[in-house]
Amino acid sequence: MRKYIKGVLYQQTKGNIEAENEQIDIYFLKRHFEVIYYLPEKLTDKKFSGQTISLWENPNDKKEFTSNRTYTYTYDSLGRMINFAYSSCIVCATLPYNYTIVYNSKSQVEVIRHENKAEDRYKFYYNKKGDIIKFEEYAGDKIAMEITLSDRKCRLLHIF
Q1: C-beta neighbour count of 84 within 10 angstroms
Q2: Is 21 exposed, middle or buried, given 0-12, 13-18 or 19+ CB atoms closer than 10 A?
Q3: Which of 29, 54, 94, 95 is deepest in the core (most CB within 10 A)?
Q4: Domain of residue 116, residue span
Q5: Residue 73 in contact with residue 79, Cβ under 8 Å?
Q6: Is 23 left (phi over 0), alpha (psi -120 to 50) or beta?
Q7: What is the number of structural domains in the chain?
Q8: Using 50, 70 and 90 to split pLDDT, how confident is the model at 6?
Q9: What is the mean pLDDT of the chain?
Q10: Average pLDDT over every residue of 110-133
């Protein structure tokens, strides 16, 4: 794993992760590297195909933005989430966010882009088996983090 400040490498970590029974997907990155903190629990749901849904964080509290907030999810016709957003509120400690998800021709997540800061994005690269082999995080036009995974025997991954 390589971390950058304004595009300049400042930290490099190497190591191994046993991943014998794990799919190397976006949630693998979230679990093992704590990236894409706001990623929803699942990115596909056929029952919401073609819809936008909004959920109040505290459904039993007042439904007003002065003290409560919403999560909004938009799905395409295939039931893939294409946008997830958080409204925040006047007294909330967390800032609002709004991310758009772009899929490749194999329905794999290719890019997750922060809509409030269009240059901020996450990029994913896959091998022929569909495992993520590289992840890049950009802050503005500069790379902020890079994780390269190589599939070894017994699914032992080496992090560069």
Answers
A1: 19
A2: exposed
A3: 29
A4: 2-57+66-159
A5: no
A6: beta
A7: 1
A8: confident
A9: 84
A10: 90
